[in-house]
Design brief:
alpha+beta
């Protein structure tokens, strides 16, 4: 883990105009939480770069942002990866599973990180959830790896 957080959206010089700074701070805190979970749990289904923790970390970020009063937020399920959408931005706290040289928190207005910068419409399955229980129910329904399920 490189422990460094960078807003990765160079094509948007006014990036914080649409995404409040505390969203980035909460995302950074969630990333640190996920790194600590990775270090303490030693789960065989997780690997470096937080591979296997995307659903767990994204749900934690979703819940933390909801606690801070954010409403325009969704969990984004993309076949085999999870991140969040807030204020028309994608926030990914586990993108390092695809490339450990990426920032620990990646934010973009119109592209996703996994497995490289691509448009969301390129995914065969793309689902958005604004309810954490429905999200977890979906993961259970599709048979998401039990050691990678959020609680």
């Amino acid at each position: 883990m490189n422990g460094q957080s960078i807003y990765l959206a160079a094509e948007h010089p006014n990036r914080f105009k649409f995404l409040p700074m505390d969203v980035i701070e909460i995302a950074n805190e969630t990333r640190v939480w996920a790194e600590q979970l990775y270090e303490t749990e030693q789960n065989e289904d997780w690997s470096n770069g937080l591979c296997g923790l995307c659903a767990i970390a994204s749900l934690e970020l979703f819940r933390q942002l909801k606690k801070h009063g954010y409403e325009d937020i969704e969990l984004v399920f993309l076949q085999n990866h999870v991140l969040i959408s807030i204020n028309d931005h994608y926030v990914d706290v586990t993108a390092t599973q695809f490339d450990e040289s990426l920032p620990t928190v990646c934010v973009s207005k119109d592209k996703l990180i996994c497995p490289s910068w691509i448009e969301p419409s390129k995914f065969l399955q793309r689902l958005f959830f604004d309810d954490d229980n429905e999200f977890v129910d979906h993961l259970l329904y599709i048979g998401w790896c039990p050691n990678q399920l959020p609680v």
